[in-house]
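ok here's Diketogulonate reductase-like aldo/keto reductase:
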Amino acid sequence: MENVTLTNGVKMPLNGFGVYQITDQKEAEESVIEAIKAGYRLIDTAAAYKNEKAVGNAIQKSGVAREELFITSKLWVSDTGYETTKAAFAKTLELLQVDYLDLYLLHQPYGDIYGSWRALEELYKEGKTRSIGVSNFYTDRLVDFILHNEVTPHVNQIEVNPFLQQEEAMTIHKEYDVVVQAWAPFAEGRNGLFTNEKLEEIGKKHNKSVAQVVLRWLTQRCVSALAKSVNPNRIAENFDIWNFELDKQDMKIISALDTNTSSFFSHRDPAMVKALGSNKLER
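and the structure:
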C-alpha cells in the first residue's frame, strides 16, 4: 500500500475505506472488520454518519495495533463553534474508543468554521489529532480560509471521480500543499460509471474491474481515495490495486471522460446550503 505525506510529515494511506450511508450498526462494524482484514488502514467516518461507535467496535476487535491505523472523523455543521467543537471532538473519541485521531475535518464549509478551526488548531497542537483538514471546500473558500488562519488544512476531502476530475482544483491544492482526498470516487455508480465502455476496456486490458481502474487512476494522481462497500469480496477487490499501473494512454482515455460536473449537487446552491446548515445532529 502506498502513502501520501502531509505537510507535517504524517503519512496517510492513499487507499482508504469509507462508511458513509452504512447506517446499520452491525453491518458497519462487520464491514470495517473486513476492510482491515483486507489490508485497509485508513478508515473514514463522521459524526453525521452515525456509525462512529460501530467503527470503534471494529477497531477494538480487529487485532491491529492502533498506531497502524489511520482514523478520520468529521465535525458536523450544527457543532461548529469553539466550545461545541471541543465537546463534539471529545464525543467522537468516546464513540470511536480511541485516545486520538489521525485526521479531523470540518465536514462542510458552513457555520462558525473559524471558531471551530481555532479549536482544531488547539487539538492538533495538543496531539489529540495528528492532522486537521476540511471537506467540501471549493477552491475560493479554501484559499480564503488558508489566508486567515494559522494552520493550513492538511487535507481537503472533495468529490473526485472520472466525471468530475477537479483539474483546476488540483493545481490550487498543490500550490498550497493541501492533499486532495476523494469522496464518492465511483460517483455512487451514477452516469453508468460501472458499465462505461472506456473504463471496461481499460479494466480488461489489466484484468481488473472498473472500480479498481478508478481507484488506481486516483492514487496515481496522488489523490487519496475513499471506497465504500459492505460486500467482503468487493472490499478486498477495492484494496487490491497495487499490482498494476495505468499507462499514459489509459490516463488520457480517462481524462476524456471529464464533464466537470458534480454527480450530486452544488455546495453553492442556496437551497442545499440551507438544508445542510439546518440539519441539527443529535448524538
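+1. The chain has one domain: 3-274.
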